[in-house]
Amino acid sequence: MIKITATAESPEQARALLDVGADTLYVGGHPFGLRLPRALGLDEIKEITLLAHRQGKKVNVAVNGLLHNEQVEQLPDYLQRLAEINADAVTMGDPGAILTLQELDLDLPYIYDAGTLVTSAEQIAFWIDHGAIGAVAARELTLSELKEMQSKLNQPVEVLVYGPTCIHQSGRPLVTNYYRYAGMSERTDKDRGLYLRDPKNPDSQYPIFEDEEGTHIFSQDLSLMPVLQDLYDNGLHTWKLDGVLLHGEAFVQIVRLFAEAREALEAGNFVPAALCNRLQSIQPQSRSLGTGFYLKDPKDIN
Amino acid sequence: MRKIVDKPEVLAPAGNLEKLKMAIRYGADAVYIGGQAYGLRSRAGNFTEDEMREGVDFAHTRGAKVYVAANMVTHEGDAAGAGRFFKTLRDIGIDAVIISDPALITTCFISAPGLPIHLSTQASATNYKTLEFWKKVGLERVVLAREVGIEEIREMRRHTDIEIEAFIHGAMCIAYSGRCTLSNHMVNRDANRGGCAQSCRWKYDLFEIDGNSARSLIPEDAEPFSMSAVDLSMLHHIPDMIEAGVNSLKIEGRMKSIHYVSTVSNVYRKVVDAYCVDPDHFVFDPAWEEEIWKVAQRDLSTGFYYGVPTEKEQLFGKPRKIPKYTFAAQVLSYDPETKIATLQQRNNFGLGEEVEFYGPGFVRFKQTVRDLWNENGEPIDRAPNPMMTVTMTVDHPVEPYYLMRKK
């Protein structure tokens, strides 16, 4: 009943993710998909889709960018190709992309994903009216809000249970601009491993990188392992694990832990402590784990 | 001679009733305000129903429009009462509501049919297909994302006839509006529900992790990392905006002062009129720019309209020194016989100071304060008390609602 969606960065990793229990692989590439572990071409997406379908599993493709005219021009061709390779769904947050998809009338549904803007059941209902088969919840919601949202909807609301969460997207190359100002020559890409710290909060550590879509800033890595029982009990059964900043085998092992947690939950014998400890041992030591907004009281956020 | 009859609207912010009236007197075709709920400026002055009624009355008498921003991104429970709110706005005669949240859009359609809806910039409309989508849904207008270029607007106009509103002046989000939750994560304030703490304007360390310890990348003599943007000004490019097909030219700043709102409205009114009356012989008057700098708070740039902003469009280090002008008084009346103006004081000023009067229609002149009397007709050296009534001689005629500023 619990569905695990995990990002996949390559056909090799996809195979491993399917083996450890991922139900849906999440992939994509430029210029339509945002913040993926690796930008994949259609050939790789096709290969991953074949792998997944062979095991009766699914592939969703990220078309979640804020699209400009130029991208909109190229979109119909991309969507058609995705339909041809039998991708199971796309994620979309741009109404222009959604309209394009509807006009093409393909056998390719979409899941509404507009990042920070998906915060109520009524919003999601609007997009369901416009064809969405589900939605990805904003990371800024508390457990009580998510619970209420899901209880009002028949379609699944996807919840991030592991990974960093994007808290800022700028169209500007903010790191490059700083380098130019400071006379530095340095890389700005995702694998460079750059972070911001707010001096007023010495423990803060916000990953930052640039790509073709601009600058992206993330929060602390999230892990809901300690509270999966609450998610499960409240009908939040669509889990996303995001490996945007964690490559290779480490991410696969983390997905494996969540798959184990799922089995335990469904068997009624979930005990988080051991799984949390194992997760801690795989998680890069320099990046601590937190529960984001999930355990906060909505009243404390104003 | 070519002439543009269908002039674009100059749309000004109004944080309160006084600013609303001033913006309209100074040339705004429309103003946008906040109601007491569902907006994004919880700290800006927001209008009560009675104030809205008075504002609408004032605006409609002068052929101007009033829009209400209800651009919050609602969470569960936040939208309660929104239907009644929209119905009230419609009944008051509000000309449109500015919304980004589809839940509120649905509510507005159901509860207040006939009340036009504008899509807020918070929804980041960046392509013509998105404009088509919102037109099909039934929206009347889309406020574009600030990341859209002028060529992109031209192309949008070729594809769709929905009204396009675009920012021409003011502070800018450094992020795609609505796609930034720095405040949420840093200080538990929801940026999309009115709590933005402007975290992008803070200073940060930029570092890498070497083994297990952090190593700062900030050079020794450099300013810390920051994301702060300079402000937008399309003052020199209004013809481009008009020719691209923009229907509404939006000035940012519901938190800004009367001095700011009146000055900026006045300037853009003048530029739009000057261009539309004879576009082929339009000449830019440097006085317009001089005027804009009197209320500028940061350096100015053209944002994304002509390319992706570089480091020059961001604020690093010490900000440029901009001469600061203060709003000193408002004209209450004028006697042409005696050339004496009656003023309401707004900031301390006194004898010997050089001040400047300005009025709607881009009237302005400098004046030395040669004499000054209080309410009882007694000569005084200075006007120290807030809102006190004083009189002084002026060399050129003034009218009620002319404003006086000083350096």
Your description of this structure?
The complex is a heterodimer of chains A (302) and B (407). Chain A is built from ten helices and 14 strands. Chain A has helices spanning 11-20, 42-54, 69-84, 95-104, 121-129, 143-151, 174-182, 228-233, 248-267, 272-282, and strands at residues 3-7, 24-28, 58-63, 89-92, 110-112, 132-136, 157-163, 166-170, 194-197, 206-211, 214-218, 221-223, 238-241, 289-290. In chain A, β9 and β10 (206-211) form a beta hairpin. The radius of gyration of chain B is 23 Å and the shape is globular. In chain B, 26% of the residues lie in helices and 24% in strands. Chain B has 407 residues and is of the alpha/beta class. An eight-stranded parallel β-barrel of chain B has the order 1-2-3-4-5-6-7-12, surrounded by six helices. Chains A and B meet through α3, α4, α5, α6 and β8 of A and α4, α5, α6, α7 and β8 of B. β9 of chain A pairs antiparallel with β8 (203-210) of chain B, so a sheet runs across the interface.
